[in-house]
Write a structure and sequence with these properties.
The protein has 326 residues and is an alpha+beta fold. It has six helices and 20 strands.
Length: 326
């Protein structure tokens, strides 16, 4: 009799927990997710999957002396690591010397979603509750971020019911097909920050640059503009600089909808030597590049469908009729 009562009590508790979770809206769950990642000590091992390629990733987070410290590392191939100390992000990449930026964020869709400006993002995406599932052995609430226009990818998020941490992200096209995935495989919640993370938090790092100091003349006026963009995208920065690889001048514009970043490059080339058109897609990232009849190369790179990137590139127009890009 007593055993039956205990089973009944456990069942009632599960029902109450389910009802409590169901009372939350999709937006409220996303708010919980964003708060959770900044307040807890944990380590999440993930696998990024795109076009049959798997990349193991580890994200470690701690609150040390009331301040956030996080470490993101790619575990295969050449060492690539990133360190966050409050609002300062240090990049350790094999292509150049380490540097620190203030007000940046870690790369990747998982990091973008846990730090996204939610009110702005919800202007162009609808949050929808989609039931429950299991990830890494944990019960998760599933939330869909459905783009209000069909020219962007959608997102499916799995949020752990206990910790409210983001365990899995699927990027899907308008037909619902999987484009790219970040899948959590192990979550280790800890009572205190890992000792090695404490050591990193106190280590000497490169001097901090503000984002606006990392680019020459970040708001420099360009002599062209975009006549079409998907809903929600806004210009974050624009400048004219030289490409490191070729030393050729290029106009650059960076755009974002709060989750996805896009880069647009416009430059003069020799139309006889340049490739007339390139269409490349790797997972969710598209690269579209073409050279027009007057020898101007336009390139768009970002996590949007290829047809969207192509339409953005084709929308580049001079500010005045017959005005050539310098």
């Amino acid at each position: 009799m007593r055993q039956s009562s205990l089973i009944l009590l456990a069942s009632l508790l599960l029902i109450c927990a389910k009802a409590s979770a169901d009372d939350l809206s999709a937006e409220a769950l996303l708010q919980q997710m964003q708060s959770a990642v900044s307040q807890q000590n944990f380590e999440l091992s993930m696998v990024k999957a795109r076009q049959g390629r798997l990349e193991p990733i580890r994200f470690s987070h701690g609150v040390i002396d009331g301040k956030e410290v996080a470490h993101l590392s790619y575990l295969d191939g050449k060492a690539v690591e990133y360190l966050q100390r409050q609002n300062e992000y240090t990049f350790f990449e094999n292509t150049h010397e380490p540097y620190t930026l203030k007000g940046a964020r870690f790369p990747g869709v998982w990091s973008s979603l846990v730090r996204m400006p939610l009110p702005r993002v919800l202007e162009s995406y609808d949050p929808v509750l989609a039931g429950r599932s299991r990830v890494a052995g944990l019960v998760a609430q599933v939330v869909r971020l459905v783009p209000k226009e069909a020219d962007k990818y959608g997102f499916v998020l799995w949020v752990d019911e206990q910790s409210h941490l983001l365990l899995r992200v699927d990027m899907v096209d308008k037909e619902g097909n999987l484009v790219e995935q970040v899948l959590g495989v192990d979550l280790d919640r800890q009572p205190a920050p890992a000792p090695w993370l404490v050591t990193l938090a106190r280590s000497k790092l490169p001097d901090v640059l503000a984002l606006e100091d990392a680019y020459p003349a970040p708001q420099q006026t360009l002599n062209w503009h975009l006549t079409w963009l998907p809903g929600g995208f806004k210009v974050l920065s624009q400048d004219r600089h030289q490409l490191v690889s070729t030393s050729l001048p290029v106009d650059y514009m960076m755009l974002s909808d709060g989750v996805v970043d896009l880069s647009v490059y416009v430059s003069r080339v020799d139309p006889k030597q340049a490739v007339r058109q390139q269409l490349i897609r790797q997972g969710a990232t598209s690269l579209v590049s073409f050279v027009n009849e007057v020898g101007v190369e336009i390139t768009v790179v970002g996590e949007v469908p290829t047809e969207t990137a192509k339409r953005i590139a084709e929308s580049v127009q001079p500010l005045a009729r017959n005005e050539a890009v310098q």
